[in-house]
Amino acid sequence: MALGCHGCSTPRREPGFDRMEFANQPELDDGVVDSAVEVIQGRIRPRAAGGQAGQKELLLALPAPRCANQGERDGPSLSVGGVTSGSLESPCRIAAAGPGYVSTNKNGYGTDETVALLQWGAAQMAEQFPGSPPLVIGAISKPEGGFYPPHKSHQSGRDVDLGYPRTDRGARQFLPTDASTLDTERLWTLLDAWLASGRLGFVFMDYDLQAVLYQDLLDHGYSERQLEPIFQYPAAKSTPQGLIRHAAGHADHLHVRFRCPETDRPGCVD
Ligand SMILES: [Zn+2]
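A: This is the predicted complex of the input protein with zinc ion.
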């Protein structure tokens, strides 16, 4: 069993995550996303090197989501509106645990694609790092989406809070993380998979942790030019560039936002 269960009898009360996030966050920049994916597929993902593995091909290979509420659903999910003013229909409630992850939040409702991407990414990480602690998946959206205080976003099934992969034994809750405890290899495995999927809209991480990951990737042979479309760092933390951005309150968890599923456009808004 790869999943540890240290002290997992009592779910912790959730602290007020994400109070500050998304203040003044600019709209999604498609140009940034696309160039980032190009870089990843051309250089960082050797297994896609045989050809431009298009986003659609990769998506077709995504396993179906495993939803805890599968029997109660009317059909596929539908993400409506934007992340700060949207809703969610026929959501998939992420199964409480699976290969490489645990889901600790009762509001773990997402789109089918969000849940599939989470489960797929976690499974890839677990496969590459067998025996490592599970990814801790926190808040996604409420069962019908909509306003989910204290969050500003998380309204349409496409925003997810995740515990940072850590170099210590891990935990089933979000813990303050710094350079000494951030597991950059496992974190990059996860982000790399999602970047290659073409479905990643934004990642919100503490600026200092961005710096740790960025430096580690440079040390592993990536160039500044390759990383530039992906990271806000080393530009100032207020600079609106890169997929990975600083947002206050993200030293103990990161926030991932997936783009609208193609099937949900145009009602779903990035
Ligand atoms: Zn969040």
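Helices lie at 30-44, 55-60, 112-128, 184-197, 207-219, 224-227. The CA atoms of residues 103 and 137 lie 5 Å apart.
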